[in-house]
Amino acid sequence: MDAKKFGLNDTVEMKKQHPCGTNSWKIIRMGADIRIKCLGCGHSIMIPRNEFAKKMKRVTLPGESES
User: Fold this and answer.
1) Which Pfam families match (predicted)?
2) pLDDT tens, position by position, 2-40
């Protein structure tokens, strides 16, 4: 199975819906833990990287690369 590719400022779709009704999240911090922000209500959560990789469905909009 291929490892999922994601980066800072990517917009991702999660497998389960947030209580506000959206699946879209933006990655705002990366490290051992990943902080994501709901694009529906603005709520942010921090989850471990391996748990995030399991719960993420796909990258819907890649973030801007900082060159």
Assistant:
1) DUF951
2) 567 888 999 999 999 999 999 999 999 999 999 999 999
Contact 53, 33 (CB under 8 A): no
Domain ranges of the chain: 11-61
The Cα–Cα gap between 28 and 47 comes to 12
Closest to 61 (Cα-Cα) out of 31, 36, 24: 24
CA distance 63 to 52: 17
Q: What integer is the mean pLDDT of 38-47?
A: 94
Measured CA to CA, the distance from residue 52 to residue 17 in angstroms comes to: 14
